[in-house]
Design brief:
Elements lengths: L12 H17 L1 H31 L2 H67 L7 H11 L13 H18 E7 L2 E2 L1 H14 E13 L5 E11 L1 H6 L10 H10 L3 E13 L4 E9 L2 H8 L2 H9 L12 H6 L1
Parallel strand pairs: 1-6
Antiparallel strand pairs: 1-2, 3-4, 4-5, 5-6
């Protein structure tokens, strides 16, 4: 029976050397083959480098430096929230304080108004006590009105002394409050203070004011209609506050008109209508009409000159001195 024989082939060292030389020669002839071989060799090295970098990155994420940064950001965020909450509380406190101060001011204003009303009632009672025979009916009130204001408003600069002037002026105001409603209508104006201010202006802007009652009669609707004369003297204050356009240096014609009026005595026919409120037993409306054209025409000579004077005068159709906006603020 034949016997199997194992053959061992041994490559000589010379053959290995020859093979390496051939490979080296081939690499020199084809550089790309060498690069491919190098890439195959370096690929495991790159994978190891990536794994090492990832490990280092994971290690740096949990480093003490990053932990401190995270704590700092958290503390900053917490402080920001606390500041926002604190500012909201401060704003709420300021709002509450403002509301409290507003309620306190409103309470003080109400208290002052009540005190003022009590003072007025006391003054009215004092007026009635000093004048026991004074009856609050429309006829008596109208006659007393002309008597108390026949020389206008008593100013503090009167010759009798400022204290006496203030006392007389206070009595005039008390009288108005005692015989007229608080919201008495005076043309387009409303209120006792507005009427009192008009008397102050007429008295301060003119000289020697004199109001003289001539006739009174009762209308079918119950109102009292009076006829009277109002006499005043034109002064520098009249030109300044009532006729300021006559002081315009660029208008010589107006300057001449102002010069002709200065010092002149104007006697104006006027009519007053007193409407009585039976519920409150006081005057509820006072309407005044006044003829300024006739005395001005007598002095200036022509209607054109009269129109130049009255066209820009600071006097309303209801004979109130000053602009309407100014009247409502006083």
């Amino acid at each position: 029976m034949p016997t199997a024989t194992a053959t061992l082939t041994v490559t000589p060292l010379t053959a290995i050397a020859t093979s390496d030389k051939a490979a080296f020669a081939t690499a020199r002839q084809d550089p790309s083959a060498e690069l491919g071989e190098q890439s195959r060799v370096s690929e495991p090295l790159r994978l190891s480098s990536v794994l090492l970098s990832s490990s280092q990155s994971d290690h740096s994420t949990h480093s003490p430096v990053n932990d401190a940064e995270t704590d700092r950001v958290q503390r900053t965020t917490k402080r920001t929230r606390l500041r926002a909450i604190t500012e909201q509380r401060r704003e709420q406190c300021r709002t509450n304080q403002a509301r409290y101060r507003q309620r306190k001011r409103s309470g003080l204003q109400t208290l002052e108004q009540n005190i003022q009303q009590l003072h007025q009632e006391i003054e009215i009672l004092e007026l009635r006590r000093r004048s026991p025979n004074f009856e609050f009916d429309v006829w008596t009130v109208v006659v007393e009105y002309f008597r108390r204001f026949r020389y206008g408003l008593t100013l503090p600069s009167c010759a009798s002394g400022p204290e006496v002037g203030r006392s007389a002026r206070t009595e005039q105001l008390v009288f108005l409050r005692s015989v007229m409603t608080d919201d008495v209508a005076v043309g387009e104006l409303r209120g006792i203070d507005a009427l009192f201010e008009q008397w102050r202006r007429y008295s301060a802007y003119h000289k020697d004011l004199h109001l003289e009652l001539e006739r009174l009669e009762k209308a079918p609707d119950g109102a009292i209609i009076t006829s009277a004369d109002l006499s005043v003297t034109v002064t520098d204050s009249t030109l300044q506050h009532v006729l300021p356009h006559l002081l315009d240096p660029a208008r010589g014609d107006r300057l001449l008109l102002g010069a002709r009026l200065l010092g002149q005595r104007l006697r104006c026919r006027c009519s007053m209508r007193f409407e009585w409120d039976n519920a409150s037993m006081r005057v509820a409306r006072l309407e005044t009409t006044m003829d300024l054209v006739t005395p001005l025409l007598r002095i200036l000579g022509t209607l054109e000159n009269v129109a130049s004077v009255l066209g820009h005068a600071r006097i309303t159709p209801e004979n109130a001195i000053g602009e309407m906006e100014e009247q409502t603020t006083n």
